[in-house]
Amino acid sequence: MRHDELDEVFCSVAQTWAVIGERWTMLLIRDAFLGVRRYEEFRKRLGVSRNLLSDRLVLLVEEGVLTRRAYSERPKRYEYRLTEKGMALYPILVALGGWGDAYKVLEPPVTYTHRSCGEQCHPKLTCDRCGEPIQARDVVASLAARAFERVPEKVY
Amino acid sequence: MRHDELDEVFCSVAQTWAVIGERWTMLLIRDAFLGVRRYEEFRKRLGVSRNLLSDRLVLLVEEGVLTRRAYSERPKRYEYRLTEKGMALYPILVALGGWGDAYKVLEPPVTYTHRSCGEQCHPKLTCDRCGEPIQARDVVASLAARAFERVPEKVY
Q1: Number of independent structural domains in chain A
Q2: Chain centroid to CA A138: how far?
Q3: Helices (DSSP H) in B12-156: which residue ranges?
Q4: What 3-state DSSP class applies to A41?
Q5: Phi and psi dihedrals of B25, rounded to 5?
Q6: For A78-99, how does the pLDDT look when each residue is reduced to its tens digit (9 = 90+)?
Q7: Is the separation of the CB atoms in A92 and B135 below 8 Å?
Q8: Is A30 in contact with B21 (Cβ distance < 8 A)?
Q9: Hey, are the CB atoms on A3 and B16 less than 8 Å from each other?
Q10: Is any Cβ of chain B less than 8 angstroms from the Cβ of A85?
């Protein structure tokens, strides 16, 4: 199976990976969450080639993760913003950062303050039914019969 | 900046991405969480080449995400298991699956039952201080001064 066939697998992880799992894509999304909108700023921060950046932006706009809007007509310039679907990638970003904080850096480069309670917080996974924290050993995963087979047709 | 320089960036997302952001790696980790341990089983499920699978397994063992243990001497065969550091990738997997469930598939391929409360649950992000759900707009991210610069030396 090739990487570009990931979106034909009936698995939500693989389908998500088909959108964000290319090199650099998640760092581009990280920067979008930090307020970066313009092509040149993405390019400067990521240090990637124009071709690669353009490819990623096109994919994310096609996927509905970013919207593209012209902010200048002459010269034609675009800015990119997260859609609701893009904002919904936030738990992935937080989870990636949390693991890096725990295992890869000496001090967390980013700290989070929760607006409503005003406290510095570490977002964590909890059960939406009982509210208790969840780790891998706390849940039983049940696979649907079709799980991990190819999807018979595009389902999105 | 090249992809293999990601681990020199002082950013927890980039550092995590340097470990799991290669093609296929996250699906290999998904399968490890589902109980897959043996090389041939990984290969059959992922449909990737032996070279690619071996490269990924070596990286994950070097990173301390998987341990390798011989389960047969003749022929020499190894099994791979998640370490505690590997188990700590679980929130990333859940977040990837949650987004795919919401935006990429018609029905979730995997459902989760929380052992302690017995309910079918959707793990969600909450604030560890007040317990309320967290989305991107609910928090203010503060960057450390050095964030997103190269780290002066390896910090792990």
Answers
A1: 1
A2: 25
A3: 12-20, 25-33, 39-46, 50-62, 84-87, 90-103
A4: helix
A5: -55, -45
A6: 999 999 999 999 999 999 999 9
A7: no
A8: no
A9: no
A10: yes
Give the nearest chain A residue to B147 (CA atoms).
Answer: A109
Cβ-nearest to A117 among B96, B123, B130: B130
- Confidence check on the interface: ipTM exceeds 0.90, yes or no: no
Q: Is residue A114 part of a domain?
A: no
CATH number at residue A43: 1.10.10.10
Quote the domain boundaries for residue B88: 3-138
Q: Do strands A139-143 and A124-126 pair parallel, antiparallel, or not at all (unpaired)? A: unpaired
A29 vs A33: CA distance, rounded Å: 6
CA atoms of A38 and A61, how far apart (whole Å): 14
Look up the pTM and report it: 0.88
pLDDT 10s digit of each residue in chain B, 156 long?
A: 555 566 667 788 888 988 898 878 999 999 999 899 999 999 998 888 999 999 999 999 999 999 999 999 999 899 999 999 999 999 999 999 999 999 988 888 888 999 999 999 988 899 999 999 898 889 998 887 666 665 444 333
CB < 8 Å to A56, chain B:
none
| Contact pairs from chain A to chain B, CB under 8 Å | 297
Report if residue B151 sits inside a domain.
Answer: no
**Quick check: is B155 in a domain?**
no
Bridge partners of B142, per DSSP, are A111
Residue type present at position B8: E
How many Å apart are CA A135 and CA B66, to the nearest integer? 17
Residue A66 near chain B (CB below 8 Å): no
Q: Which residue has the tokens 């650099």?
A: A24
Phi, psi of B40 (to 5 degrees): -65, -35
Residue B153 maps to a domain: no
Give the pair of three-digit tokens for residue A44: 């400067």
